[in-house]
Design goal:
The complex is a heterodimer. Chain A is an alpha+beta fold. Chain A has 16 helices and 18 strands. Chain A has 4 domains: 107 residues, no CATH class; 70 residues, no CATH class; 117 residues, no CATH class; 187 residues, no CATH class. Chain B contains 4 helices and 2 strands; from the N terminus they run αααββα. Classes of the chains: A alpha+beta, B mainly alpha.
Chain lengths: 548, 116
């Protein structure tokens, strides 16, 4: 039993034995390549094919309906070997060419992509042919370059675009550095035909009767062993590519989706601590208190979205490409993507610059408040950290660091911030005073001052204790314009101040005689003398001081 | 320099072949298989493949023309005939050939006398 192929020669349909088909195809391909340079090649081929069809037609009868190898052999015998065609035609010219080639210097190699042994684009196998080195080495280099520096993939893509693909037999020969001569073209065509045949044979049942000689068997074993190794490697690389593709796809799409969600919904992307515990804020809420107008805010968000989203989108597309092995037409996509990215950059820059102008001028508002403490000899200062339930945890974690607990909270259309400072200075009279200095920025000093004035800060005096709130606040409408707060407690000479441990996060660079560090001043009674704050009997219990 | 006998033979045949084809067609139009049969008969060519490029070349040079004719046993056939230029070409070649054959014969018959 034999498989047959249906072919069309010169408009007539024949059923032909598979083996006979391969032989005929190889024969015609060889002749064709012989004539590839001569004028009227198509006509000659058509004439030859017409003649072959005629001969076949004669051979077929009611009994015999399939062209066999024998028939093809007969046709070849009748028509002549491919070399014969040239003997009469332009053999001379060709032969001269041939001798020139073989006696001259080694033919120049050209860099082509090899479509026959490619994994992605055939770049590595092309380079391999060029340097006569196994392409696996270049493949490995590219993989390493990709894993190591990420530049490998870019470089590969550039080469993919630059290097032409070896399409014709002549180009394939140039790629391998063989001279483009009739013999070589023939060899190459035969090789390809044999390749095809081998592939067919592999598919065939190997248990069938075989009349192969010993050497053929060995050769077949080696070639199948090599092709097995090659296919194993190919599979490994394809798998690696797919694996990478999956990672790209997953990472890209997840990041993209979360970006979309954060921009177009009210989902929370920033987590901040407030009195209720942990709270989160969406991008739109945050941009509202930063950007000067709704338009700027919109532009800013859109800009950020594009700047971050476009690369993520391309990561996803790259993953898809690797996964599907499909050459998605990405030129237009690339141009559009890049333009969008640039646009995003411009949007962000515009919104940023227009908003930053509101940071240009400083404004300050200062208020001195007399504390009704005429009978007090030692004033205790504390911060009511009970309003920051999480703070206890934070204090434990970061015991001796200052300003590491930045609180941020939006509630009731107000922004609450921590991070104000407390200093202690001598008072110019006999009363304790609290100087509250508020700062803000604006596009003019006037606006900045008004914004500073709008900052709220609460404190209370309970008996001999000054209780400071841990946060100051301002209206969301005022926007965040570097609002800041500095407190200075003025202590009369001869009187003392007890610095409670709760002030740990607000006291800042308090001058004292012994140059004691802020954190070491905690839980001690400090007395204001003419030369500054002094630790005089500072370990004494201060509570007795004010009882009289 | 190595002169291969095959090469020389081919060169000798090449010019003669063109003349022979023209001669065959001078007797009337013919299709390639007819021409081949006659050439084979005269042992000028051995295989058919040789003829097709030659015919195409002669046709492109304007020496031959062809017409299509349906065939009962296969694809339509090209029937070749001489054009006017072909006719002139043939006549000139005929003159050259008779000169050449006379010359060759003369040299060949002279040769043994000289060597004696």
């Amino acid at each position: 039993m034999n498989k047959t192929v249906t072919i069309n020669i010169s408009g007539i349909i024949f059923n032909i034995d598979e083996e006979a088909f391969n032989k005929l195809k190889q024969y015609l391909d060889t002749i064709k390549s012989y004539f590839s340079n001569s004028e009227g090649k198509d006509e000659i081929m058509a004439d030859i094919e017409a003649r072959i069809a005629e001969v076949f037609q004669e051979k077929l009868s009611g009994k015999n309906q399939v062209i066999s190898v024998g028939d093809v052999d007969e046709v070849i015998k009748l028509m002549g070997e491919p070399e014969d065609y040239l003997d009469e035609e332009q053999g001379e010219g060709f032969k001269e060419n041939k001798t020139n080639f073989s006696s001259g210097p080694r033919p120049k190699k050209k860099l082509y992509r090899d479509p026959d042994s490619k994994i992605l684009g055939g770049v590595c196998s092309g380079i391999g042919h060029y340097f006569d080195v196994d392409p696996i080495i270049f493949r490995a280099l590219f993989v390493i370059a990709f894993l190591g520096f990420g530049t490998g993939i870019l470089f590969y893509i550039v080469l993919w675009v630059i290097m032409p693909e070896a399409k014709t037999t002549a180009e394939k020969l140039e790629m391998k550095g063989e001279s483009v001569t009739i013999d070589n073209i023939k060899k190459k065509v035969e090789e390809e035909a044999r390749d095809l045949k081998n592939r067919f044979n592999d598919l065939k049942d190997k248990a069938g009767p075989s009349v192969r000689t010993g050497t053929e068997k060995t050769r077949n074993f080696f070639s199948s062993f090599i092709s097995f190794l090659a296919s194993l490697l190919t599979m490994a690389f394809k798998f690696a590519g797919k694996f990478l593709g999956i990672i790209f796809l997953i990472a890209g799409s997840i990041a993209l989706v979360s970006l979309l969600i954060s921009v177009f919904t009210t989902s929370k992307i920033v987590t901040a601590v407030n009195t209720d515990g942990v709270n989160s804020y969406g991008l739109s809420e945050l941009s509202n208190i930063f950007f000067s107008s709704g338009f700027d805010s919109f532009l800013g968000i859109l800009g950020v979205f594009l700047v971050a989203g476009v690369p993520l989108f391309f990561l996803t597309v790259a993953g898809l490409k690797l996964l599907l092995g499909d050459r998605i037409k990405s030129k237009l996509l690339g141009v559009v993507g890049f333009s969008l990215w640039i646009l995003g950059l411009i949007f962000t820059a515009y919104a940023g610059v227009s908003t930053l102008s509101e940071f240009g001028n400083k404004g300050k508002q200062e208020k001195v408040i007399n504390l009704e403490t005429s009978t007090i000899k030692t004033l205790k200062v504390e911060v009511d950290n009970s309003k920051l339930p999480i703070s206890k945890y934070s204090h434990k974690r970061k015991k001796f660091k200052k300003f590491d607990d930045d609180y941020f909270q939006i509630s009731d259309e107000k922004v609450f911030l921590s991070g104000y400072t407390l200093d202690i200075q001598p008072s110019d009279d006999s009363t304790y005073k609290l100087v509250v200095s508020k700062f803000a920025r604006g596009n003019s000093e006037k606006v900045a001052a008004a914004r500073a004035k709008a900052i709220n800060f609460n404190f209370s005096l309970i008996d001999s204790t000054l209780v400071l709130e841990p946060l100051f606040n301002f209206s969301v409408e005022d926007k965040w314009r570097r609002q800041d707060l500095e407190l200075t407690l003025l202590v009369p000479y001869g009187k003392s101040v007890f610095i409670d441990e709760s002030t740990k996060n607000v006291i800042y660079d308090i001058d004292n005689v012994t140059n004691t560090w802020d954190t070491d001043m905690l839980n001690l009674k400090w007395t204001m003398l003419t030369n500054g704050l002094t630790c005089k009997n500072c370990f004494e219990d201060w509570q007795g001081d004010n009882q009289e | 320099m190595d002169i291969k006998i095959e090469n020389t033979k081919a060169q000798m045949r090449k010019g003669i072949l063109e003349y022979c084809i023209l001669s065959i067609l001078q007797h009337g139009e013919a299709y390639p298989s007819d021409i081949i049969a006659q050439l084979k008969d005269a042992k000028l060519i051995v295989v058919e493949g040789t003829l097709y490029p030659l015919l195409t070349r002669l046709k492109n040079a304007g020496l031959l023309a062809y017409r299509w004719e349906e065939s009962t046993s296969g694809p339509p056939r090209k029937y070749y005939s001489l054009t006017e230029i072909g006719e002139k070409f043939h006549n000139e070649l005929e003159g050259t050939w008779s000169n050449l054959s006379t010359a060759v014969n003369k040299i060949r018959s002279n040769k043994p006398q000289q060597s004696k």
